[in-house]
Amino acid sequence: MDMDLLLISPPYWDFYSPFLALPSLSGFLRSKGFAVRQLDLNIVHFNRMIDKQGDAILKELQNDDVYDGLDAAYKNVFKANDAKEFTRKSAFIQPGQLSGQFLKKNFYQFTLDEINFLDGIFHYIYFNQLYKKNYWDKLAEFELDSIMEEVSSELLTDTLLGNECMSLIQQGLRLIGFSSTSFDQFIVSCIYARMIKRIHPEVKIIFGGSYIPVLVKTVRPDKQKKIFDLCDYIVNGEGETALELIIQYTSKGQGELADIPNLCFMDSSGQVVHNAAKFENFQQLPEPDFNDLDFELYLMPEIMLPYQSSRGCFWGHCTFCDHDANYRYNFRSKTAETVVENLAALKKKYNNQHIQFVDEAIKPEKLKEIVAEMEARELNSLDWMYYSRISGEYTDDLVQRARALGCRLVLFGVETFNLRLIKMIRKGISEKNISKNLSMFSKSGIKNIIWMICGFPSQREEEIWYDIDKLKENSPNLKGVFAGLYRLERNCDMYSAPEKFNIIDSDPDNPYIFKSHYNGELIDQNQIFSLYKQEYAPLVSELSRSHNRYIIYFRQEEQDEPLERGLSK
User: Fold this and answer.
1) Can you give the pTM of this predicted structure?
2) How many helices (H) and strands (E) does the chain have?
3) Judging by beta carbons within 10 Å of its beta carbon (0-12, 13-18, 19+), is residue 165 exposed, middle or buried?
4) Which alpha helices (H) appear in 405-455, and where do they start and end?
5) Residues in domain Radical SAM core (predicted)?
6) What is the DSSP pairing of strand 263-266 with strand 233-235?
7) Could you tell me if residue 559 is left (phi over 0), alpha (psi between -120 and 50 degrees) or otherwise beta?
8) How many CB atoms lie within 10 A of CB 296?
9) CA 106, CA 99: separation in Å to the nearest integer?
10) Residue 56 and which of 9, 460, 512, 517 are 20 to 30 A apart at CA?
11) Does residue 322 sit in helix, strand or coil?
């Protein structure tokens, strides 16, 4: 066959919008003349799982024993304290109706509570069926075979076998790439790769994605060799040029493996070789290509396309960040002219109204340039959301102009309001600007979502109470608060130099468990956990219109009033 490469996105947690990795790679490779197919098995698997198991699991949750055992986070979403109340609140879902299309088609008719209810059901079914057992205790030893057995399921297998992947192999496809953004996705990639290799050992498998640099850094070299039982090549970094040269090497016999940037491979002596790193000229990369994706499968009520105007992080100093250091410290941004040109091209090609900027964060000064270019080109037919940092550079004029050009939602990483902790995590923001920014955007009609973290190393209970008070104080300007307990990830600065951050000890098998002190006094982590569960998490739930950014983005204020049916009864 004429196909050079099949790119696969394995199951992942986001069902509302396509992930950007495959369209970005496809856009680049197609611009070079290669025949590439992209397959989002995540959204395919989601729809298969809900269709096949949704009704049975919904009925199962109406059992007292099952519902009582739910995590409190789910009960907060369902707004039901027991199975009887859950049953009453689920009455708007008739047997056979539960599906992604059921939510999508009724998105603007359902109450906000009903939408959140369905979203919670979808995530519960997805995670509890895909990851039934806890494999994290086996992660440190990286026993791949054992971990895969914990995750593998018949339905997961059927998703691969029942899709076009196997038929393409039968037609002559010989090169497949899997993109992973998390350990969960990577394990499913391993399961799928093992299946393909057992049936078709002649197929070459590539592992890549943003999780790979973390994997390479944190897994011992002798354990990394096991990965090559499942794949032939690993792309450790940006994949555009690497994939171009791998295709040329495998299909045309051109070039040498040693010359392919960001490539890891096993040489003839059985040693893993790590080639030199390369960072793409981001300005010159074409806009993403979404041609293969079926937008009808995603749960967004209208087409929303992801777009990236920069790679890396323009700040790059946060001590809790577990992004690969090479990515973090190699910030590159497209010009405002190119960004707006790309957006206009996507609008023309896909007739979409909504864009999600997925940059780590857009600088206020870059936003100003993009807004000015959108004004100059009269590109005012898009609505969009983006990620940003708290900054004193924002002005009322800039924010109001952004809103006039379609900005609906901004997402800020705040983490904490406490000055001592802000300095410790090297966040580079001030409490004054947090409140100022939230007020400024809210008054301009742009919705605010913030991220918070509870339980930093050395964080005392009074400092958590301070954050709780500040969340209440800023609540009029918030539409969502996404929060969680701190995780001491292996790829962050805090893990690399624990003594600098008052960390005494940590559990390599559980990132939530560590010992820390404040001025020599040991922090009682159990009390921190209790405070989070009893006070912090309930407040976050109360302040959030939804735990899902897409729902917050698409829902208008006047649509929040309950209708005389369903959950409103």
Assistant:
1) 0.93
2) 25, 18
3) buried
4) 419-424, 431-443
5) 299-533
6) antiparallel
7) alpha
8) 11
9) 11
10) 9
11) coil
Locate tokens 């640099």: which residue? 213
Tokens at residue 449, please? 């979502």
DSSP string, 44-113: HHHHHHHHHHHHHHHHHTTSHHHHHTS-HHHHHHHT-SSHHHHHHHTTTS-TTT-SHHHHHHTTTTS-HH
Helix, strand, or coil (residue 238): coil
pLDDT one-digit tens code per residue, 406-461 = 999 999 999 999 999 999 999 999 999 999 999 999 999 999 999 999 999 999 99
**What tens digit of pLDDT does each residue of 119-166 get?**
999 999 888 766 655 555 555 567 777 777 777 678 888 888 888 898
What is the residue type of 386? Y
- Structural domain spans, the chain: 304-551
Encoding tokens for residue 222? 């002798």
Tell me the residue type at 530. S
Q: Assess contact for 384 and 354: CB atoms under 8 A.
A: yes
Contacts of 459 (CB under 8 A, 6+ apart): 416, 418, 421, 486, 518, 523, 528
How far out from the chain centre does Cα 356 lie?
13
| Residues contacting residue 43 through CB under 8 Å, at least 6 positions apart | 15, 18, 294, 297, 298
**Residue 370 and residue 341 in contact, taking contact as beta carbons nearer than 8 Å:** no
Domain 304-551 has CATH 3.80.30.20: yes
DSSP codes, 276-320: PP----GGGSPPP--TT--GGGS--SS-EEEE-SEES-SS---TT
